[in-house]
Specification:
- This protein has a domain of 84 residues: Aspartate Aminotransferase, domain 1, CATH 3.90.1150.200.
- Helix content is 40%, strand content 25%.
- The chain is built from 5 helices and 6 strands; from the N terminus they run ααββββααββα.
- A 6-stranded antiparallel beta sheet has the order 1-2-3-4-6-5.
- A hairpin with a 2-residue loop joins β2 and β3.
- The longest helix has 18 residues.
- The protein is globular and about 35 Å long.
């Protein structure tokens, strides 16, 4: 993907296949905590709390990913797989041809925020 100027530019250049999932992930991210800052890191949307990355969105040809710090995510990976989704080192693979697992995503966003509040652990 070409370097994007900002978040608006990023979303404006997503394909018709990518846009619905990424927009929904964006809405879920914004709803998770109103004080999160949305910006680009490594040409991908990230959500910051107190300057620390909480999670990142990534767009690929056939799927998008919701990425968390790998060490933190390792303890939650089994939940993703039990829900029937693929997981990698720190990410949930979300195919465009399947609905997003909204309840699972909301739970993970809250887990991450709660963990950060308790420990201040960054990425």
């Amino acid at each position: 993907m070409q370097k994007r100027a900002d978040i608006s530019d990023y979303f404006a250049h997503l394909s018709d296949d990518q846009l619905p999932h990424l927009e929904q992930l964006r809405e879920l991210s914004r709803a998770a905590a109103p004080d999160l800052v949305e910006t680009l890191h490594w040409n991908n949307p990230v959500y910051l709390k107190d300057g620390v990355r909480m999670w990142m969105l990534q767009a690929f040809k056939q799927h998008c990913s919701l990425r968390f710090p790998p060490g933190w995510f390792a303890g939650h990976r089994a939940q993703v797989e039990a829900a029937g989704f693929e997981a990698g080192e720190g990410f949930i693979k979300l195919p465009y041809d399947r609905p997003l697992p909204v309840d699972l995503i909301k739970r993970f966003l809250q887990y991450r925020l709660t963990e950060f509040e308790a420990t201040g652990a960054g990425w």
